[in-house]
Amino acid sequence: MNLWAIHEFLAWVPDSAVAAAYLLATALIVFLAFRIVRTIFHRTIKFELPMLHALLQKAGGVAQFALVLLATSLVAPLLPLDRATSGILHRILGAAFVVLAGWIAILASNLAIDRYISRFKTDNEDNLLARKAVTQMRVLKRTASVLIGIIATGSALMTFDAVRQYGISLFASAGVAGLAVGLAAKPLLSNLIAGVQLAITQPIRIDDAVVVENEWGWVEELTSTFVVIRLWDWRRLVVPLSYFLENPIQNWTRVSSAIIGSVFFYLDYMAPVERIRTKFEALLKDMKGWDGRVANLQVTNITDRVVEVRLLVSARNSSLVWDLRCEIREKLLAFLQKECPEALPRWRADIAEMAKPAATGLARAARA
Question: Residue 179: which pLDDT band, with cuts at 50, 70 and 90?
Answer without folding.
Answer: very low
